[in-house]
Amino acid sequence: MEIIFRTWCLLLFLSFVAGSKIIRSVDSSPNERILNYIEQHGNYSADPCEDFQNYASGRFADLHTDDGHLFMQDHIWSQYIVKLQRLFDLLKDRVFIDENSVEEKVWRFYNTCLTAPNNTRSLRHYLELASPSKNLTWPQFAPFGTLWPKHQFNWMETAAHLERYGSNIFIKLSIEPNERNLESLVATVRYPLGGNMNDVAQVKDLLISIGVRSGRASLLVNSIIKLNSDLQELIKEDHLRDYSRRDIGRGSDHPVEYDDYDSLDSYRQREVQRVPSIYSYLEMVLDPSVDLNEVLTIIDPNYFDSLKRVIEKYDEEVVASYLMVRFSLFVQDLDGSHLNSSSSDCAATVAGQMELASDLLYKNYYLGQEKLKKYTEEVQQIFEAVFRSLMVRLEENKLHFDDDTISQFQRKLFAMTIRVGKLPNNLNHRRFVTKFYDNLSLDADLDFAKAQLNVLKHRTQRYLDQFKGVVSKDTYLFLPEDKNPEPKLHFPQSVIVLPYAMLQEPFFDPQSHDVFKVSLLGFSLARQVMSILHPIKKTTDTKYIYNGLACLNQTTESKDLQLRLDDVASLGLVYDAYFGDKSEFSQTQPAFTNLPLKKLFFINFAQMFVGDEVYVDFGSFDSDKLRLSEAVKNLPAFGEVFNCPTTALLNPPEKCEIF
Ligand SMILES: *[C@@H]1O[C@H](CO)[C@@H](O)[C@H](O)[C@H]1NC(C)=O
Ligand SMILES: *[C@@H]1O[C@H](CO)[C@@H](O)[C@H](O)[C@H]1NC(C)=O
Ligand SMILES: *[C@@H]1O[C@H](CO)[C@@H](O)[C@H](O)[C@H]1NC(C)=O
Ligand SMILES: *[C@@H]1O[C@H](CO)[C@@H](O)[C@H](O)[C@H]1NC(C)=O
Ligand SMILES: *[C@@H]1O[C@H](CO)[C@@H](O)[C@H](O)[C@H]1NC(C)=O
Ligand SMILES: *[C@@H]1O[C@H](CO)[C@@H](O)[C@H](O)[C@H]1NC(C)=O
Q1: Domain extents for the chain?
Q2: What are phi and psi of 245, to 5 degrees?
Q3: Shortest-distance Cα residue to atom 3 of ligand 4
């Protein structure tokens, strides 16, 4: 009782502070603020018909040199972090009676990040905590004068062990309930991305920083780089890897990945069930009680054997050092792992690594039932508008799919739902989250690496634990994901999860005009919805994909045609949803601006594509400028709205029709 009461008081206290502390500029409405945001970035002396990115957001880079934001998504993420930080800081003054409360755990992790001594963040310390296996150190840490017992080293075991911190070095694994047979699970095994190691000096410095002598480091680094490039060759040979999608608008090299069951179907033909080498690896990662009935090997079933051949060419010490370097790079990429981590880095660390706890606190403090309900309704309304506009396209069936295909698409579409926030819909959130972190123990000593590795390991463990019991299509599944603020479609539940981080201005404010909400959120959702139409290989309904792709392929070379197709189709869908006959959105010119509604729609939409990066790694992403250009130039309305001559780059007479 005492504990419950205290928690109550804390919540009351937090809500009280929430009411009094949120600073808003009182005299501006959300519409004015959003308009101001986009007008600031626009470069209206540019010609929208030639370079829409420059027109809509040409001043973005200049305005954000200080805060380092490269995308609008950085902006909303940092706003989300500011809010969480304010909230985490408030936890400081609380006396926690209940050691097991979510608040206490969040505070411990956050506070450890803020105050732990620098030596607890050294790479060496991380590596000492995450050793290759129970009784074995990394070669570099063998006691002076002793030989590292290389016969005890097992690369698979070590890779599996490191995978438990979320570091996928040799394969990327995901597990899901099997849609066809609910009693069984399906593991999908893919090539990991990452692992670019072009910078010899960086790897050498890394080795030296953990105590390898310079001469030894020089020798070792060459073998490590050689091994890495052998592995990259293996991955490059893979001709099947075409299902990874990049986070929209973010320069991340961790693509969002999802599985389309039908597309997986076609792999099933290639699948080799119970590939022994893959199974032995999975058994090392998974709890023995997890019963995997099927393994879908998206990667080449021979990959593991090829991997083995490559690895066995090298001395154990090199392989161990390679894993150590890859793990170190993983650690260096983690929020909070740097010596100079600021309070906001620490808030981001908690937000990304204890995401369910952060969601709970965020919801209680900033949203509450009422507001969450309001947001959910708004989001639902936009989702339904996109849904309707896709339904209309399917009914019109301009590309003459057969009836089966149409009904298959419709069935998938009807099965889709949307959820705001990562927490499950039908469970008590506090109870759920408390239970989720039940086994996470963060002791009071201020050791950051230890705390972080604990949190990461726990997170993976919880992900894997879910598969011990019966999992059905409707079971809530926690999926550890990148922190990027973007909606994600979870298969096979067919639920689009919209993280709280996206409910920030200027991306989304329920009080703002529909034109703002639909052009950004609508587009993001449409892209997720589109993915249900992704190639269903070697079957008839790929026609639209191939027609569309072939047409889009003719304009400018693309590194990722599927992404381009999704962009083009999604913009068409949201534009229809807003301005089409069936629209329920207001078409009247808003009073707060002279910009015509349709221009406003396009300009706001373009805020999603402000990046100026040219992606070279993996060669798989087009630049934001190219993506935006392709999206608008294939939509007839764009040329009309901006009065573009037909000679203009972005208003070619021939447009690609996707549906
Ligand atoms: C704005 O557009 C003009 C015309 O294209 C261009 O010369 C100028 O560099 C742009 N300004 C910025 C800040 O990008
Ligand atoms: C680790 O070392 C301990 C004691 O040195 C030994 O009892 C144990 O069997 C070893 N474990 C493994 C997995 O080798
Ligand atoms: C920890 O490292 C940071 C960055 O190098 C430095 O600014 C700070 O003073 C160090 N703190 C201590 C206590 O040495
Ligand atoms: C913190 O250190 C990292 C790596 O040493 C560096 O990339 C980053 O710019 C630094 N951040 C700040 C705010 O100094
Ligand atoms: C959590 O901890 C309890 C007690 O230590 C243990 O029995 C249980 O198996 C753990 N649960 C998980 C999922 O690790
Ligand atoms: C796109 O064009 C390139 C070069 O013309 C060609 O190699 C490729 O097969 C085409 N792709 C599609 C999907 O049409």
Answers
A1: 123-332
A2: -120, 145
A3: 338
Whether the Cβ atoms of residue 116 and residue 446 lie closer than 8 Å to each other: yes
Quote the pLDDT of residue 34. 95
For range 61-71, the mean pLDDT: 89
The answer on pLDDT for 640 being more than 90 is yes
* Nearest-5° Cα angle at 571, 565 to 573: 100
CA distances from 140 to 123, 317, 328 (A): 13, 9, 13
3-state helix, strand, coil in the chain (%, to 5): 55, 5, 40
Helices and strands, number each (H, E), in the chain:
27, 8
Check if 489 has its Cβ closer than 6 Å to any atom of ligand 6: no
Torsion sign, CA atoms 475, 245, 381, 532: negative
> Which CATH number is 123-332 given?
1.10.1380.10
Question: What's the token pair of residue 161?
Answer: 């062990």
Ligand 5 is surrounded, with C-beta below 6 A, by: 439, 465
Tell me how far apart the alpha carbons of residues 437 and 453 are, in angstroms, rounded to a whole number. Answer: 14
Strand, helix or coil at 297? strand
Alpha-carbon distance of 501 to 609, in angstroms, equals: 18
Quote the Cα angle for 89-93-98, to 5°.
105
Entry pTM = 0.87
What mean pLDDT comes out for the span 231-245? Answer: 55
Among the residue ranges 97-106, 171-180, 336-345, 562-571, the one predicted with the least confidence is 171-180
- Which of the 8 DSSP states describes residue 289? T
* Top-confidence range, 22-36, 82-96, 234-248: 82-96
Output the ligand 1 site: residues, CB below 6 A. Answer: 43, 45-46, 54, 58-59, 62
DSSP-based three-state secondary structure for 302: coil
DSSP 589: P
Q: Give the C-alpha separation, 94 to 96, whole Å.
A: 6
Among all bound ligands, the one having the nearest atom to the CA of 612 is 1
Which of left, alpha, beta for 286 (phi over 0: left; psi -120 to 50: alpha)? Answer: beta
Please give the C-alpha separations between residue 534 and each of 144, 247, 263, 452, 466, in angstroms, as whole numbers: 57, 16, 8, 37, 28
Which atom of ligand 3 is found nearest the CA of 338? 4
- Backbone φ and ψ for 181, nearest 5 degrees, come out as -130, 100
Q: Which atom of ligand 6 is nearest to the CA of 546?
A: 13
Q: Which ligand is nearest to the CA of 440?
A: 5
Q: What is the b/e burial string over 161-175, where b = at least 16 CB atoms within 10 angstroms of the residue's CB?
A: bbbbbebbbbbbbbb
Mean pLDDT of 401-425: 88
Helix 72-91 vs helix 2-21: angle between axes, to the nearest 10 degrees?
Answer: 130
Tell me what pLDDT residue 268 has. 45
Report pLDDT digits (tens) over 163-203.
999 998 988 887 777 666 666 677 777 777 667 787 889 99
The structure tokens 């705390």 sit at 451
Q: Look up residue 254 and give its two tokens.
A: 């961790």
Q: Can you give the pLDDT at residue 298?
A: 64
Mean pLDDT over residues 455-475, rounded? Answer: 86
